Amino acid sequence: MKRKAKPAAPAQTLPKTLTGIQGLDEITLGGLPQGRPTLVCGGAGCGKTMLALEFLIRGAMKYGEPGVCMMFEESASELAANVRSLGFDLDKLVAQKKIVLDHVHIERSEFEETGEYNLDGLFIRLGHAIDSIGAKRVVLDTIEALFAGLPNHSILRAELRRLFRWLKDRGVTAVITGERGDSSVTRYGLEEYVADCVIILDHRVEEQISTRLLRVLKYRGTTHGMNEYPFLISAHGISVLPITSLRLDHEAPTQRLSTGVARLDEMLGGKGVFRGSSVLISGTPGTGKSSIAAKFVEAACQRGERALLFAYEESAAQIVRNMRSIGIDLDKHVQRGLLQIHSSRPTLQGLEQHLVMMHDAVCEFRPSVVAVDPISNLSFETNESAVKPTLMRLIDFLKQRQITAFFTSLTTGGGLRSSPEDSQIGVSSLMDVWLLLRNSELNGEHNRTLYVLKARGMSHSNQVREFLLSDAGIDLVDVYVGAAGVLTGSTREMQEAQELAASTLRGQNHERKLRQLAGKRKAIEAQIAMLQAESDAEGAEVNFVIAQERLQEKDALQNSKELAALRSGKGGSRPTRKNS
Amino acid sequence: MRKQLPIAESAEDFLKEVSVQDQSRYILRLYITGHTPLSTKAIVRIRKICEDHLEGRYDLEVVDIAQNPTLAAGEQIIAAPTLIKKLPLPLRRFIGDMSQTERILLGLDLRKAGETLSPKS
Asked: What is the pLDDT of residues A522-538, one digit of tens each?
């Protein structure tokens, strides 16, 4: 894939004319070569005429470049009817002198060659048409019809060479359509004359699903996207999906968006996901992927932003009804025009065409949030290898527009045995955030768990959370992690109850022990008081005895003194002692 | 066919019809693009053919579409020169410089296929 040149580079040497066809200008990095013829070829029914006419009509309407269409197969009224289905009013443009239609009718049986001739008649007609409105664009559809009408091909070839030379000299940007040949690009080798730019259209059916493809075979003097690009003829004209030609240089906003689930935001660094990032939610059936997507969409609408939901499993009405059961009212937002739900079956069209449809819807609605539910259904129809480039295109496109994208993906063959990481190898590298939802079956119960597998550029929780869906909405609770392993659901609740009971019991035990201790302490204190009292009593007794003895001693001393005094005879004053 | 041929009346009618058609006027229009050698050649030749074979019962108009380009679209002209036999019907177109006289005579119903050149020319 070449991605060298920039479309807006001032060094552009080759002047280009914008086609106005969505995507084609990006592939060709600015449109078709200005003032030169471009060959558009392809088999029947692959949209050659549509492409050529849209080039003309867009030119007249959008870029103010009048155009001439010379048809060799269809009449003006047929053509007008054909493009009316794409919403173009060709008659009006003709009346406004912005487009001239000239139907060249060639009836083989009417012609008789009588010698040498040239196609001056055609030149004059074309020249007159160009001059009459000052045309800048010319479409010749399908000039090869001349080969069927005119027998002398050698004259015809020489004249065609002259015609393309003449167109170049006139400076008109021409689109020439041609039928695809078996061995060459076109049946009559027109590519020999129109060598500046050749675009090939194809129409392929794979697995019963048809896809239109466009490829720029050659573009002289400029780089261009080389790949085959799917395109769609929709109600708004041709839409080519050139997303692989885009460069990987989109902005990286730092703004964070809430996912709508508070606990999930908490797991993603507390603020949610980055604006413009892509989020993948994968999980086994019934794990609640759609619910998270719906919640995300609702959160965007509640912020007043526009959201687009592509649903490939349920109809819009069914989604609204089902989401109401978990407290998400999407209908309100649909009424307010903030939410669009596009429901279709994946089998409706090929993967690429789905992508083109999404592309168109996004361009038209300009949402800030897009949810696709689920991407796995899209890939169901085609092989896995086709999904990745297609999704890459979608993601790149959304990133370019800073649209936050939510994808859900159904994990097949999941369960606990195989690793769920394996199932999304193809697309996971494209995703910035990957949430994994799992069902864990334990004790006859299915419980949903969620964890963040990766989240680029933010700190995120490594914890598994239990994911609860109830009529109150979505909630995440911590799972029980203990000796018995990771427990969820009623097992978790049982475990929690058991723990509560055990801790209550323990608490009571402690209280009892404390009470016992207090009692014991009181008893000891009483004992201490008793002993104290006893010792006090003993002390008092001792004091009493001491006092008594002291008294007696004193008395004895007194007596002996008196006695001594008496014995000395000096005194005699003591009558009591007179007799002794 | 074989049944009808022996009947004198129908053969007579046929001859009458042929003579009527023979006498009817030819309306021819030659479209050319300016004064190119091809244009000149074609004009000269068709005039000669008309004089030789349709003397007095032809109406030849030469139109230069370079001067009147709108006529080119109206008459579905792509090649030049183009001669259109407007009448008698059916409408026929001859493209080229009118050098192949035999083909023109055939196309103008003036000669049956396989017949040799007329004694006049």
From this structure: 999 999 999 999 999 99
